[in-house]
Amino acid sequence: MPAPGPWFRYRAENRGGSGPYGPAGRPRPGQLPAGSAVPALTENGPVRYSVLGPTLAHAPDGTDVAVGGPRVRALLTVLALRAGRPVPVRDLVDEVWYGDEPPADAVAALQALVGRLRRALGRDRVVSTEGGYRLDARPEDIDLHRF
User: Fold this and answer.
1) Which of 18, 79, 116, 140 could potentially form a cystine with 135 if both were Cys, beta carbons 3.0 to 4.6 Å apart?
2) Distances (CA, A) of 21 to 112, 122, 125
C-alpha cells in the first residue's frame, strides 16, 4: 500500500482541534485550507450580498466570503432581506428552519448560527438587538435592491 499523500497527512495532523479542521476532519465554519480561493472576511469596508440565486457574501475586493453551511446561509438570507432592520428571534427561527422542525432549543441553535456568521463576516456586521439580530448593511449592498 502506498504511503499517504500530503493531503491525508494534513487532515490527520489537524484532527485534534487546531487548524482549520475539526475533530471529524471537516473544515471549521468560515475556514478553509491554506491557499483556498474563498477566505473568511478579514477586511474592513462594505460587504455586498447576493440573495438572487445562491446566497453569497462578497468582500470589498470582490472575492467571495466563506459563509458556512445551508442554515448559516439561510440566516444570512433572512437578515439580508431585511438589511439594516432588526429581525425578531422567532421570525429567524421560523425562516431558518422553514419546512423542518426546529431543534428543541432553537434559540441556542440560532445563537450558534449567528456566531458562525459573525466569524465569517466580522462581529460588527451582525448586530444584536433587543429580541433579535440585524445585518449592518444598506439596502444597496444587497443585489435584490440593486436590480
Assistant:
1) 79
2) 18, 20, 25
Query: What sign does the CA torsion over 118, 128, 95, 24 have?
Result: positive
- Across the chain, mean pLDDT equals 78
User: What is the value of pTM for the model shown?
Assistant: 0.71
Q: Which of 2-6, 38-42, 130-134 has the highest mean pLDDT?
A: 130-134
Residue 41 · residue 59 · CB < 8 Å: yes
Within 10 angstroms of residue 110's Cβ, the number of other Cβ atoms is: 22
Q: Per the structure block, which three cell numbers stand in for 7?
A: 493531503
Residues 6+ positions from 135 with CB-CB distance below 8 Å:
49, 76, 79, 80, 82, 83, 84, 125, 126, 127
